Amino acid sequence: MGIGDLHLLGWLTNRDTYDVRGKTVLITGAGQGIGWELAKVLHARGASIALADIDESSARTAAESLGVATMAIGVDVTDREAMARTVTRVVERFGRLDVVVANAGVVPKPATLRVMDARDFDRVIGINLTGVFNTVHPALDHIIQAKGHVVVVSSAAAFAPGMGGSPYMISKVAVEQLGRALRIELAAVGASAGVAYFGVVETAMTHDTLDDDELGRRLGAMLPWPLNVRITGRAAAETIADGIARRAPRTIAPVGWEPYSLLRGVVNVVLDGRLARDARVHALIRAVEERIRPNLHSASDITR
Ligand SMILES: NC(=O)c1ccc[n+]([C@@H]2O[C@H](COP(=O)([O-])OP(=O)(O)OC[C@H]3O[C@@H](n4cnc5c(N)ncnc54)[C@H](O)[C@@H]3O)[C@@H](O)[C@H]2O)c1
């Protein structure tokens, strides 16, 4: 057993078991990345999978490569009526809906609150938060009928500092609260829900944000060990799948984020103070702002 197997929160939480064999699972954002890896893992464990993605062709290619007991749906999670129709289509096709994984998500363009395009704020909240609501809400009657499970994909961003990308952090902490509320509400009627948190996962999202962008690389370089440890999309998917199998209230991967998650109240008081005083962070923030509004920082703007 390696350090990666020591899932403290998983160990502390309940031991219910839930077998997805013969069940129907709806996954949003299933055309690539974590959602696609999860579709493969759950299909291999015997579930029928509805793969929903705004990129219909990627959802279709993914579903076709899985083969039987799959369906592909091209849908934008921000379209509330279309998401309700998606749930109806899944139930018509498979006769039931047992598990929903609200996974679709996007990142904003790097920006401070000062220089950000307000439309980017709305876009990220619309997909990452309202999109999760739009996914889960029409499914709940079916989930409860099946005594099933809901997973909402949050992030370690729910408790990490948000500078330079705050719409993402704001959306993910809101998703965390959505999942916590759902957990308790569903427990009253025989179903369950959990929140999935990830640190850094090797997907297109990470490559676009941290690897292919010079400022992203500078931000990534500030992450200390073990928070800079990366996991594959497959490993992230297995964490969600194993969480479903034990109706976990939360899953966190990689494991290095668990102590931070548990101690966040204390850690963040100290961390926010340090980051607000850190010259490297000041320089990075000014670089992010200058990229959007060149020459924003005249000498008079930087007072300390
Ligand atoms: N990659 C990471 O390091 C990381 C870390 C923590 C949490 N997460 C979360 O995991 C989830 C999956 O991320 P990923 O890394 O696989 O990203 P990704 O960009 O590889 O895949 C996201 C998928 O969501 C789809 N999508 C985007 N907008 C959509 C919309 N409006 N409607 C329907 N589908 C839409 C995309 O087409 C894509 O297929 C996201 O919620 C993300 O915030 C990722």
- One letter per element, helices H and strands E, the order comes to HEHEHEHEHHEHEEHHEHEHH
Percent strand equals: 5-15%
Please give the domain count: 1
As for the CATH topology, it is Rossmann fold
As residue ranges, the low-confidence spans are 1-5
* Global Rg: 20 Å
Number of helical segments with 4 or more residues: 12
Main sheet: strands, sense, barrel: 7 strands, parallel
Mean pLDDT across every amino acid position: 93
Helix content: 40-55%
Structural class: alpha/beta
CATH structural class: Alpha Beta
Tertiary shape = globular
Reading side by side through the largest sheet, how are the strands ordered? 3-2-1-4-5-6-9
CATH superfamily: NAD(P)-binding Rossmann-like Domain
Give an overview in words.
Keywords: Oxidoreductase. One of its GO terms (molecular function) is oxidoreductase activity. Belongs to the short-chain dehydrogenases/reductases (SDR) family. Residues 23-260 form the Ketoreductase domain. This is SDR family NAD(P)-dependent oxidoreductase. By secondary structure, the protein is of the alpha/beta class. It has a single domain (17-263), classed as Rossmann fold (3-Layer(aba) Sandwich). Helix content is 51%, strand content 14%. The protein has 12 helices and 9 strands. It has helices spanning 8-12, 33-44, 56-66, 80-94, 118-136, 140-145, 166-187, 204-211, 214-221, 233-245, 257-277, 279-292, and strands at 24-28, 48-53, 70-74, 99-102, 149-153, 192-198, 200-202, 230-232, 250-253. The chain has a 7-stranded parallel sheet, with helices on both faces. Strands 7-8 form a two-stranded parallel ribbon. It is globular. The chain binds nicotinamide-adenine-dinucleotide (NAD).
